[in-house]
Every structure is written in structure tokens, then in C-alpha cells.
């Protein structure tokens, strides 16, 4: 199965590269977020609840996660395109396992987000980012970004297979808003005043991903328990999405 | 080779395919004939593992289409009604990829891709993105993709629908060649009576999800009686006596007479001579599948052009 997954991932990446407009806008948006947030909001990090951390380090995970949520829609869009061209049916007619067929575009989506995360970091370094925990903080953030990217690419692939409709798959990315805004996106949990928002942030898996990244980005000592929570959330979500997508692969023919 | 028992597909309580049973022998060209919406494509999608079966079962080369899907897929090549081509990749890339997904090594896949590009006459276009191909070229690439793993059974879902007569003949030739040279068993669906008649060893007629007849073209036609002679007389007042002499029937101005070959024809001509009658037209009609369809369903056969 891994050989086929690799072959199909390569194919998805090739298709992505041949359609640059499928990823360039999202790339620009996440860099834009980073720029706007740091220059517009950095003053609030002087509040005591921030404990003297740099706001750039605090907001960097938001840029990474919003890039992942926005960009993962691409994997679903590519899949709808395959269903509409009839190519997905051709893939279903090969002896390759259904899991490999859905993992291909998911992994390609994940790798796309990996490159995007590197670019966001690059932009961050240009803005003067320094990571107190050193390269460990950098790599651990990347790992979490990959996990979350896989989960979200899986979500968009699953929705595409379930609905087989470009508009519906696009609408699925509307999940972006609750995931990003009902979380500890801009301020730490202690600063959220509305009780309902606190509850939403606690239920929102994105919170654990962003907190996990902050656990390795903000201070010299890494908060392993928070980081592990993030990794677990990403792993469980990814697995659930792979299963969801694979189960919906059969019969995903053009309507 | 293909054994189908009581196969049924239901969508929202409506039986699109209703308990059909048939078998296709090894090396045969089997045509599934029926008008638009009869359930042909749904049957192909079930037999090729693309959609789940509601009830009944089927095997291909002894492999069960629900329980042994991987082996079924290794046996079959499928060209669906609409081509399955990724426009962003080149013909060559698609063929190599297809080979690798069927377990070929890189070298073997490349070799097979070249062979097939040659075979379908796309050797000069293999390095271009398939999105730039014409409709006819896409059809040929699609056929090549279907043949990569040398399937023993080929499913062709309406391979000539919407094609011009010349391209249709080209496909017929190709289908016969695959059948004769490689002994490939072929299951094709068609809404063209003539196509089934010309191409298939055996035909099953499907209408409204139900299989209504099965046999060779000759057997099916025999169900509707032998050939007949159709005459239109210049002087139509003589039609009735003419009809009675040969115990035929009249439809509008045409006198239809049952025929038993050239002997009847001689008698008809002699009768016309003897009675000094002139025929405006005189045709010997072979029984057609059209007649079979009308007889079985009570409705005229409609081809969707």
C-alpha cells in the first residue's frame, strides 16, 4: 500500500504544481495575516497575562493554522476535479487500496502546507522572530503543523468525496471561521472574558494545536504536557479523517 | 467468465436494475442493448466494483464482485461512458502511472506506455498534456489506459455513443481485433440496435431495469418470425385482394407479406404480372432487432442521437 500511496502523492503534487493558482492565494493570505497581526496587535503583549513573551511568537501559530485550514481546502478541490473529470473513477478501478487513493491527495496537501509553514517561518525570521527554545521549538512546531495539515486535508477530501460537488466542498472550508475565531487565537485563554467563548475554545481542536505550538515557541523551557496534547489531537483527527475519506471513496462517481 | 444472478440496484426504493441474470462466455462479445436510462451503466458500475450491489450477486472469472474486488479489478479493463483522464497530465504520464498502479516497475510501465501510445496512434502526442487533446484523441487515450494491464475482460460502456459513423466503424474494428487477437472477452453496452447486431456474438436486451430477452441476433430475430416482403401498389384498390392471396396484412398503404425466401418472392412477382399490377416499391425485409423490441415492450425503440 505504501508504494501506491507514494505514487499517488507524487501525482497529486505534480497536478498542484501545474495549477499554481490553487495554492498561491492562500500563501499570500497567511503571510498577510502574520504581517497585519504583528504590526496591528503587538501592543497587547505588554499585558501582564502574556508574561513578557514576544507577540510575534504568540501569533505565528495563528498564521500557520489559518494557512492550514485555508490551504487544505485545496486537497478537496483537487479531488472534486478528479471526480468531475472521471479520473477518480479510473483510480477506483485499479487494484490499489482505497486508503492509498484518499491518502495520496491528503499527503500532497500536507506537504503543500509544510512548504507554506516554512515560508511563514521565513517571513517571521525576517520580522525578527527568535525562538527561545532554539531549533527544537522550530522542528516541533513543524511536526504539529504537519499533523494538523494532514487532518485538515483529510477533512476536505472527505467532504469532497461525500458531496462530490465543488460548491459543497468549498462551503466545507467555512469551518475556517469557527475554528480560527472561536479559539485562543489572539489572546491567551485567561484574557477571554465571555464564558461561551471560553467553552468554545476548550472544545475547539484548533486551540490544542495552537497551544501546542505556543508551548514550544514562547519560552526557553518546553511545556511537554501541552505539546503532547496538541500532537494527540492532531493524530486522532488525522486518523479519523483518513477513515472517513476511505469509507466514502466507493461510489464517488460523477453525479 | 461473467456470471450474474438476480443482480439488483435500488436507489431510494426504485429498482434501477431489477433482478437480472445472465452469463457471458470466455472469448465472447456480449452486448447489453437498451434505450437510454434502461439500467445499462448501473449494471456496468456494479460489475466493475464501482458501486455497491443492493442484492443478488455476480462473479467475474470466479471472483465475487463484492467479496473479492481486488482480483476482479485485476481481471477487468473498463472504459466508462465518459473518459477518465486527468487533463493536467500528459498521455505518457497517465499511462506510466496507470501501469505502476497495476504493479509494473518504472521500466516496464514506460515500455508499456510507449507500446500503447503507438497502438492507439498517439505516439506523437504522448508528451503533451491531455487537456489539449481532441475528443477523439481522448477516447483513444482512454482505451489505451483501459488496456495497460492486459485485462481478460473488457467492459465498454456505450463506446460509440455520440461518435460519427466513421469513428464508430473504427471502434468496431478495434473491438473485433481485441477479441480475435487476444481472445479478450468483451461486455459492451449500446443503445444502437445495429451495433449490437453487427458486433455481438450474443445480445441481452434491457428495458426499464429488466432483462427482457437474451440470445444471438439470429435467435432474437427468429422470435419475431421470418423475413417478410413489403409492397406498395400503384393501384391501391387491389391491395386487399393481393394481401388475401398471400395471407399478409396491410399497414397504411404497405402490404406486408410473410416470406419463405426466394420462392415467395417469385410467386409475388408472378402474381403482380398476372394481375397487371405495378409495384411502386417492393422490398424484402429481414427481421430486425427493432421488431423484437417492439414485440417485447409494445413500444418503438428509441435511439438517443
TrEMBL record, chain A:
Record's bilayer topology term: Multi-pass membrane protein
InterPro entries registered for this protein in UniProt: ABC2_TM, ABC2_TM_bact-type, ABC_2_transport, Nod_factor_ABC_transporter
Subcellular compartments: Cell membrane; Membrane
UniProt KW keywords: Cell membrane, Membrane, Transmembrane, Transmembrane helix, Transport
Tree of life domain: Bacteria
A Pfam family it matches: ABC2_membrane
Transmembrane segments annotated in the record for this chain: 21-38, 58-80, 101-126, 138-161, 168-187, 226-247
Chain ranges of the ABC transmembrane type-2 domain: 21-252
Keyword Transcription set for record: no
Family according to the record: Belongs to the ABC-2 integral membrane protein family.
Full protein name: Transport permease protein
Organism field: Exiguobacterium undae
Amino acid at each position: 500500500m505504501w508504494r501506491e500511496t507514494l505514487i499517488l502523492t507524487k501525482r497529486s503534487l505534480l497536478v498542484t504544481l501545474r495549477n499554481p493558482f490553487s495554492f498561491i492565494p492562500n500563501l499570500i493570505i497567511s503571510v498577510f495575516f502574520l504581517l497585519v497581526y504583528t504590526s496591528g496587535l503587538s501592543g497587547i503583549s505588554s499585558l501582564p497575562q502574556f508574561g513578557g513573551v514576544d507577540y510575534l511568537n504568540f501569533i505565528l501559530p495563528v498564521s500557520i493554522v489559518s494557512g492550514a485550514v485555508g490551504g487544505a481546502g485545496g486537497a478537496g478541490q483537487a479531488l472534486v476535479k478528479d471526480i468531475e473529470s472521471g479520473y477518480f473513477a479510473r483510480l477506483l478501478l485499479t487494484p490499489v487500496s482505497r486508503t492509498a487513493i484518499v491518502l495520496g491527495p491528503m499527503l500532497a496537501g500536507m506537504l503543500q502546507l509544510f512548504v507554506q509553514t516554512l515560508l511563514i517561518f521565513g517571513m517571521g525570521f525576517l520580522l525578527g522572530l527568535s525562538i527561545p527554545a532554539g531549533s527544537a521549538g522550530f522542528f516541533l512546531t513543524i511536526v504539529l503543523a504537519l499533523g494538523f495539515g494532514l487532518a485538515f486535508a483529510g477533512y476536505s477530501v472527505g467532504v469532497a468525496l461525500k458531496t462530490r460537488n465543488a460548491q459543497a466542498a468549498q462551503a466545507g472550508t467555512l469551518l475556517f471561521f469557527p475554528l480560527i475565531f472561536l479559539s485562543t487565537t489572539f489572546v491567551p485563554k485567561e484574557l477571554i472574558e465571555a464564558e461561551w467563548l471560553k467553552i468554545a475554545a476548550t472544545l475547539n481542536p484548533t486551540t490544542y494545536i495552537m497551544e501546542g505550538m505556543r508551548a514550544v515557541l514562547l519560552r526557553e523551557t518546553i511545556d511537554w504536557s501541552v505539546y503532547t496534547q496538541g500532537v494527540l489531537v492532531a493524530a486522532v483527527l488525522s486518523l479519523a479523517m483518513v477513515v472517513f475519506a476511505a469509507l466514502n471513496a466507493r461510489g464517488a462517481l460523477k453525479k | 467468465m461473467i456470471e450474474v444472478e438476480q443482480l439488483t440496484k435500488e436507489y431510494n426504493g426504485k429498482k434501477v436494475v431489477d433482478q437480472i441474470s445472465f452469463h457471458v462466455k470466455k472469448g465472447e462479445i456480449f452486448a447489453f442493448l437498451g434505450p437510454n436510462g434502461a439500467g445499462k451503466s448501473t449494471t456496468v458500475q456494479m460489475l466493475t466494483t464501482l458501486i455497491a450491489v443492493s442484492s443478488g450477486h455476480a462473479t467475474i472469472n470466479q471472483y465475487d464482485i463484492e467479496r473479492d474486488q481486488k482480483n476482479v479489478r485485476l481481471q477487468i479493463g473498463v472504459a466508462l461512458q465518459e473518459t477518465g483522464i486527468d487533463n493536467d497530465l500528459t498521455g505518457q504520464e497517465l499511462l506510466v502511472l496507470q501501469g505502476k498502479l497495476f504493479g509494473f516497475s518504472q521500466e516496464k510501465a514506460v515500455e508499456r506506455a510507449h507500446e500503447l501510445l503507438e497502438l492507439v496512434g498517439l505516439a506523437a502526442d504522448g508528451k503533451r498534456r491531455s487537456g489539449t487533446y481532441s475528443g477523439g484523441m481522448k477516447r483513444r487515450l482512454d482505451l489505451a489506459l483501459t488496456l495497460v494491464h492486459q485485462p481478460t475482460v473488457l467492459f465498454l460502456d456505450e463506446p460509440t455513443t455520440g461518435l460519427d459513423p466513421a469513428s464508430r466503424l473504427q471502434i468496431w474494428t478495434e473491438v473485433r481485433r481485441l477479441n480475435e487477437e487476444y481472445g479478450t472477452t468483451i461486455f459492451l453496452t449500446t443503445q444502437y440496435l445495429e451495433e449490437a447486431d453487427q458486433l455481438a456474438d450474443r445480445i441481452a436486451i434491457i428495458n426499464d431495469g429488466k432483462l427482457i430477452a437474451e440470445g444471438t441476433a439470429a435467435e432474437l430475430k427468429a422470435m419475431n418470425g421470418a423475413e417478410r416482403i413489403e409492397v406498395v401498389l400503384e393501384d391501391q384498390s387491389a391491395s386487399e385482394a393481393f394481401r388475401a392471396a398471400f395471407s399478409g396484412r396491410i399497414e397504411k398503404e404497405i402490404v406486408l407479406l410473410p416470406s419463405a425466401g426466394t420462392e415467395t418472392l417469385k410467386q409475388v412477382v408472378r402474381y403482380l404480372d398476372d394481375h397487371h399490377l405495378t409495384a411502386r416499391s417492393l422490398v424484402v425485409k429481414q427481421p430486425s432487432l427493432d421488431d423484437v423490441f417492439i414485440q417485447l415492450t409494445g413500444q418503438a425503440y428509441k435511439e438517443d442521437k
